[in-house]
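User: what does the whole thing look like in 3D?
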Amino acid sequence: MVIKHASDIRSSEITDKKLYLNRRDFIRASGTAAVAAGILGASQSELQAAVPAPRGRKLEGVKPSPLSTTEERQNTWDQITTYNNFYEFGTDKEAPSLHAKSLKTEPWKIVVEGECAKPAAYQLEDILKGQTLEERIYRLRCVEAWSMVIPWVGFPLSSLIKRCEPTSKAKFVEFNTLVDSGQMIGVRQPVLRWPYKEGLRMDEAMHPLTIMAVGLYGEVIPNQNGAPIRLVVPWKYGFKNVKSIVRMRFVEKQPLNTWQEMQPSEYGFYSNVNPSVDHPRWTQATERRIGEFFRRKTLMFNGYGDQVASLYTGMDLKKFY
Amino acid sequence: MAPLARRVLDAHKTTQVVLSASVIKWGLKPAAFTAGLLPFAWLVWAGLTGNLSPNPLSDITNETGIWSLRFLCITLAITPLRKGTGWHVLIRFRRMAGLFAFFYGATHFLIYVIADRFAGLDFPDGIVAWSTARNLVVSVAEDIYKRPFITIGFLTLVMLLPLALTSTAGMIRRLGGKRWQALHRLTYVAVITAVIHYWWLVKADVTSPRYYALIAAFLLGMRLWWAKARLLSPVPARATRQAS
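Assistant: Here's the predicted 3D structure for the full assembly of 565 residues, as structure tokens:
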């Protein structure tokens, strides 16, 4: 190949710029542009500026709870509402903050079915009627090894379950997130098998730490955090905390939760926070608290072992991860 | 045909784009260099002004990694583009693109060492202590050994290192064109391992790694195609014998 430098070329040979860009070149240049666009096109998922949720309506009569974790600094509203895993609105952390606006949370109902005496479609207002809302400040530990401290507002799941009167056959309870491609841009891609499914053993579901959250920082929970109603089980990895719940089913057999369905070697049913059982691809021994540089040591059961360890007496938690 | 038009077409065959050496040296190269630094500058700016996500260390790790992969793809796209367009001047930017791939890859590794490994250490003797250095080395080595996606990512950087070191004109001369070219074909392997590294680290959504896998497959597929064409043609055409 000869690369001619300017000095090698007689000026008469130098093609006028207007002329060398003839039709054939134009076609070739289009090809070039296509390849270049291909490479740059992959950058479309480039970080977009996340948008914190607008402040919500203030919830009335919220009581503090002795079960709150008060000794650690809480993450900010902006952090909690811009860094979310809510794949129904896209897989990037900021995607839910950008796309969850389209979620319509009123009216909302939860269909209760399966092994219970009172299966029905419960309206959210009816579920909340007569419920005392409590502030529950909990650590949230994501399976991706980051964590936050979040002041939820909610009520014990046990009180909702009691109203449904589960039968003796009800050993587990399964939850589904809404799936509606009109409102949820992320479900148009088969990233997960929609709807999102999660489940708890009955004793886990009835545990006083387990709540249904409807608020954050004393206000109505933002869409990207699972509005209007979501589960919070603070001793389990974040993905157990199913969001925007539309269905509860009492079942006899252990349900298959979405992440276990996706990757059974990496995600189990129990998914208790456990620093001694690593994710196959990364360590669970430490975590980054959002907002901090140095990583914290992950605590067994996310620090709630005193309250919940007895649920798992005699179980090999390496096997039942 | 008018003499001027003929001359234009003839000139077109040999020198598609004629740019003076000084335009390249003082205009295009600094422009390309600046463009290559833009993602880095943006990350520094966004990091300092709080314009990253609430987990900025994770963003910086991801972004430097993805830019390394992008520059690897750009490096590998230069020869196909040159052949497609006849803009042979592009070859003058290949080394820079390759060095940017190494620069972003090395930064990616460094950030991982600091944010993922160093930040997770115990500091039994305080932070400034020999034990810190020792524990850091052990922690990085263990992670590279234990986790396949880290292993293959590290392998990619290890492959890019000799390429960066032998990128100078002096090293090309010392190695000799043939050997240098053979060594630099490691880029083909590196782009594959880089894509695997990316693929293995995502949780469920492989949209983006798949995109890069397709680009890499396309770019490497062209090499296979040329190699086949070389083998099949009894008198190899000049153009296809060029270094790629």
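In plain terms: Chain A touches chain B through 59 residues (CB under 8 Å). The CA atoms of residues 145 and 287 of chain A lie 5 Å apart.
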